[in-house]
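Q: Got a minute? One more chain.
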Amino acid sequence: MQGAKYGFVFDSTLNDFISGEMEHAVVQCWREAKPDIIFIEGQSSLRNPSGPAGAEWIVSADADAALIQHNPPRKKYKGLEDYPALIPDLKDEVALIKIYGAPTIAITINTHKMTEQEARDYAAAKEKELGMPVILPLEDGVARLIPIFKDMIEKSIAQV
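A: Always. Here it is, folded:
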């Protein structure tokens, strides 16, 4: 995040240096702050043609897990509505992220352009299909994520 102590301005960094900058930010944060957990804000999905930085974040930061933010009504990438690329199904995206070495631990739903009932029905169906929490953060908060993160911290090599 721009202005954050441990980070860099992604949009003004040449692609050749993204991985190194990401690694530097994570290592510096660990050395100086020794946090229980480091959250890395993603830039886009792995297949977004306008900003496919997700793979670099997962690999360069050696991410232990991923959390996907998804807006079900959106069928095409924002700003690329005329481009012939559809947003893939969540199941496919979860599988691709796993190939890069980070299991998806939960899905959060951006409910923009959904009724609350549509959002709840979608979340329930996806939770059953994917076998992981599917959360409506604006409607319900994110308390369901806390036990997941606590478990990750307890199992972390940093705690050993």
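A: The domain at 10-159 is CATH 3.40.50.300 (Rossmann fold).
Q: Perfect, thanks.
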